[in-house]
Amino acid sequence: MRQKVLSCIAAVTILIGSAFAVQAEENKNTDNRWGFDLGIGGTVSTSEYRGVERLGTALPLLGYEGDRLYLRGLSGGVHVFKNENHEFNVQLSYLPQNFFASWSDSSAMKKLDDRYASAMVGINYRLHTDLGMLAATLSTDALGVNNGVMAVASYSYPVRFANMSLIPTLGVQWTDENYNDYYYGVSKGEAQASGLSHYSPQAALAPYGELTLRVGLSESWSAFVSGKALFLGEEVSNSPMVEHSSKHSLSGGFLYAF
């Protein structure tokens, strides 16, 4: 149960990254803002793993945007360079990807080894223009859990109304063979114990789409709802551990800007 709660916490804090980003842009234009956002949110998410049910939880939320430091969901870092259009950051992120054999209803999956979450360290670049925002992150496992490398690139175009912002995002996530083998591979020993086929995936691309709606309720309060769909690459979806070729998450909550 504790692992399931941690997984859901990760899902909701990742999904509100866009909501934090929009709030931060608006806070810059308000002299009395400190750059903090505090609130509460909830999420429901699906799992790609065979025999694992949907997860859901509620939790507190925290974001911060400063001249040198930032916290956006589960990612935080240092602005090495920042102006009106460009950001170059060194970033540390919590990686919520995990699998616990006891979660699955499949007797074969229950005989596999657990896969654990980790932390990723890397570099992040953001380009802010009138035509939207481009973002790219390259990171590697900081704790030696999966020894993998991940690259993510995305494009967002916030549409602002009187008291509402709609942020559609399109992106792609690339993971190398070490990452995929740890989270989706089946070793020869596991195959013998479980009856699943031995599987060693290569690197894979996973496109995704995200849509975030943020509504200003007052000068300080706002509400948000955010949905994301990630479509797994064939190297991942062909794994005998995987039942669904896509992952879906829906989150919502309230934020107070200080």
Quick take:
The chain has about 260 residues and is α+β, with helices and mostly antiparallel strands. It has helices at about 1-15, 15-25, 175-185, 190-195, 235; strands at about 35-45, 55-65, 70, 75-80, 85-95, 120-130, 130-140, 150-155, 160, 165-175, 205-215, 220-230, 245-255.
Structural account:
With 258 residues, this protein is of the alpha+beta class. The chain has helices at residues 2-15, 17-27, 177-184, 188-194, 234-237, and strands at residues 36-45, 55-65, 69-72, 75-82, 86-95, 118-129, 132-141, 149-156, 159-160, 164-175, 204-216, 221-231, 246-257. A twelve-stranded antiparallel beta barrel has the order 1-2-3-4-5-6-7-8-10-11-12-13. The longest helix is centred in the first third of the chain and has 14 residues, at 2-15.
Total E-strand runs: 13
Shape: globular
Q: Biggest sheet, open or closed, and with what strands and sense?
A: 12 strands, antiparallel, barrel
Return the string of H and E elements.
HHEEEEEEEEEEHHEEHE
